[in-house]
Design goal:
It is built from 21 helices and two strands. By secondary structure, the chain is an all-alpha fold. Strands 1-2 form a two-stranded antiparallel ribbon.
């Protein structure tokens, strides 16, 4: 079986390289038209990506629901909501209530005080500090319809699949509308690498930690698609109110998933600037704009009530009251000197840290910067080059593309300030944004390229390499991942791909 599997693996890689060879038909034409054959190819690619991610999410019992521990909080809080409670209803250790600072993990261990790990603890009750929106989008509807609890990894898989579909549709719309010279091969390759680089940590840790991330990213990509369709319009066209309002609703709900990720809503600003440039602003347009952004206010009111009802503050999501191995109750604000001193070098580490190599398979260790994980994302800086800059300005996409980097820097800064340290899986909050910037940068390069086929081949080849690198990142043994939980997994995979059984 190992021999057959290894041969099929290398045959698949060989076929892939054959399909993207310099003379391949994939490089000869742009993304339009979307013929029946191309629809089939796109469906097979998207379906294959989603199926692959679904398969690897099931591998590790720590994360697939077989050993739930505290990773079933979404399932438990859904039951609590249905019973009319905002807290879990767990009974707290009486000694915990007597402690002056119950968030001091070292003191809890010294005194032998028990606490529910990774829950928020406030006024004697345990709450969930992870985003609440996934409960209402997936867990509660499933529970009400079927009578059974939705396993958390399954919700992550659902959100990830809808994200990939949204990414495919959004990137295709951008290419068709603004970058018609972008080759079909480059579009497919970029879609594959952005999808996998964005979701590799959902595949690795599908239960709870990545669930709100997957949900928020799904909402945000569809929000950006709606906003782009609404505001990137010809000067004589008004924006469709319904589409803009839907974008607002989806973007607002992202704040109820993971606040740092929700900073992607700032990308609406360059879209609005692009829409109003050269237009006569009327009171009717302003009124329609206010109505379209009303969902932000409504969702904000709901989230603020939810926070105040639990923690006494409309702005407290529970981050300060985590029961983990570090006391996070005294973390500073984003704009304090201490926070800035911590964030500035941390942003560089989170994005640009070189890959820490290892002598054995999979040759990498934890601690990868986003650009090391997927070097193709460096093309998100292509807007700085004269040619792509001119092309982006001509198409009205310069503001959107140039805003990606500042928004990502803000997201990383928030992650650093509000977390003990920057984990690699936090990259899931923003890699897709860097992918969007890189996609626009590549599209702009094609607009003025004299040797489009060569450029298409290079993009496809670079994507191929980044996808293999992403696969290695998944295999890094870390934090009870599949290859750490199963000590023999790496050996089996290495025998599989190295064809050692043939020797």
């Amino acid at each position: 079986m190992v021999i057959v599997g290894g041969i099929l693996f290398w045959a698949f890689l060989g076929a892939w390289l054959f399909l993207i060879r310099p003379a391949a038909p994939l490089h000869r034409s742009g993304v339009s038209p979307l013929t029946g054959g191309r629809k089939l190819a796109l469906a097979l690619l998207a379906g294959g990506l989603i199926g692959l991610l679904g398969f690897v999410m099931t591998l590790c019992p720590i994360w697939n629901g077989e050993i739930p521990a505290h990773r079933n909080q979404y399932e438990k809080i859904t039951e609590a909501f249905l019973e009319g409670r905002l807290d879990f209803g767990y009974e707290a250790d009486p000694r915990l209530l007597e402690m002056e600072n119950p968030y001091d993990a070292a003191l809890r261990e010294e005194l032998g005080v028990e606490a529910c790990y990774d829950h928020a603890f406030y006024n004697g009750k345990y709450y969930m500090y992870f985003g609440v929106v996934p409960v209402f989008l997936a867990f509660m509807p499933y529970r009400l319809i079927t009578g059974h609890a939705l396993v958390t990894w399954q919700a992550t898989f659902l959100f990830t699949g809808i994200f990939i579909l949204g990414l495919a549709i959004y990137l295709y719309w951008l290419a068709k509308r603004f970058f018609p010279k972008l080759s079909w091969g480059a579009y497919l390759s970029l879609l594959a690498v952005i999808s996998l680089a964005s979701t590799v940590y959902e595949a690795k840790y599908p239960a709870m930690y990545q669930t709100p991330v997957a949900c928020g990213r799904m909402l945000e990509i569809w929000s950006l698609y709606c906003f782009s369709r609404a505001f990137l319009r010809a000067p004589e066209e008004d924006f469709p109110l319904g589409l803009a309002a839907l974008g607002s609703l989806l973007g607002a709900l992202t704040f109820g998933c993971r606040p740092p990720l929700a900073m992607a809503n700032l990308l609406v600003i360059p879209l609005l600037i692009r829409f109003f440039r050269g237009r006569k602003i009327s009171s009717r347009t302003i009124l329609r704009l206010l109505l379209s952004f009303l969902p932000y206010a409504l969702v904000a009111a709901g989230l603020m009530w939810y926070n105040a009802a639990r923690f006494g503050s409309p702005f407290e999501f529970g981050q300060s009251y985590q029961m983990t191995f570090l006391d996070q109750s005294a973390y500073g604000s984003l704009f304090s000197f201490r926070s800035l001193a911590k964030a500035v070098p941390g942003v560089f580490r989170g994005l640009f840290t070189a890959l820490p190599l290892h002598s054995g398979f999979p040759f990498l260790q934890e601690g990868n910067g986003a650009f090391a994980l997927c070097p193709l994302l460096l093309l998100s800086f292509a807007f700085l080059l004269p040619g792509p800059r001119r092309a982006l300005r001509k198409e009205g996409l310069f503001g959107l593309t140039a805003s990606v980097i500042p928004v990502v820097l803000l997201i990383v800064a928030l992650q650093i300030v509000w977390s003990p340290w920057l984990l690699d899986r936090y990259q899931s909050d923003y890699v897709y944004l860097l992918g969007l910037g890189a996609f626009c940068g590549v599209g702009a390069c094609f607009s003025g390229a004299r040797r489009g086929r060569l450029l298409s081949f290079l993009i496809c080849l670079a994507s191929f390499g980044c996808i293999l690198l992403t696969a290695l990142v998944f295999l890094i043994p870390y934090n009870a991942s599949y290859t750490e939980y199963d000590a023999d997994a790496l050996m089996r995979i290495w025998r599989f791909i190295s064809l050692k059984a043939l020797r």
